[in-house]
Amino acid sequence: MRVSRTPRPTELAPSEWVSGAAWIDEIAAPEGTSRFRADSVHFAPGARTAWHRHPFGQVLHVTEGTGLVQCRGGEVQTIRAGDSVRIAPGEWHWHGASPTTFMTHLAIQEVAEDGTEAERGSHVTEAEYLASLLAH
């Protein structure tokens, strides 16, 4: 067993991955034979990921606030503190905060043997984000 007492500094999510401001705190990174990764991600109101997919899927668990998640071709779903979302392997999706509240979630996924965590697609534009709210 190894106890980590010095957390890595909070990082601002790269603009290639997120529209708006989001901060990432690493909880667990792949090490040795483990391919497990967990991060706590804190989204500012209106911030959201680009479309992306994970080779082995992803679990999101909301710890604070209200957010949104959408899988390609599906409806936007509201997610709140205590909700968990399971996204299937290879499923294109995005997630982020609602327009008026912060949202924090744990993002948990398995990393591929070659180190791939996710494949990024296009950004969810402001028009798409707002249209998804109207349809919701």
What does this structure look like?
With about 140 residues, the chain is mostly beta strands. It has one domain: Jelly Rolls, CATH 2.60.120. It has 1 helix and 12 strands, in the order ββββββββββββα. The chain has one helix at about 125-135; strands spanning about 10, 20, 20-30, 35-45, 50, 50-55, 60-70, 75-80, 85, 95, 105-110, 120. The strands form 3 sheets. Strands 1, 3, 4, 7, 8, 9, 10 and 11 form an 8-stranded antiparallel sheet that branches. A two-stranded antiparallel sheet has the order 2-5. A hairpin with a 5-residue loop joins β7 and β8. The longest helix has 10 residues, at about 125-135. The model has no long low-confidence stretch (mean pLDDT about 90).
Helix content: under 10%
Shape-level CATH architecture: Sandwich
Question: What is the number of beta strands?
Answer: 12
The name of the CATH topology is: Jelly Rolls
How many structural domains? 1
Strand and helix order = EEEEEEEEEEEEH
CATH class: Mainly Beta
- Ends: how far apart? 46 Å
Q: Compute the gyration radius: what is it?
A: 15 Å
Low-pLDDT segments: none
| Average pLDDT for all residues | 91
Number of helices: 1
Largest sheet, in brief, is: 8 strands, antiparallel
Q: Per DSSP, what share of the residues sits in E-state strands of 2 or more residues?
A: 35-45%
| Sheet/helix structural class | mainly beta
Shape: globular
The name of the CATH superfamily reads Jelly Rolls
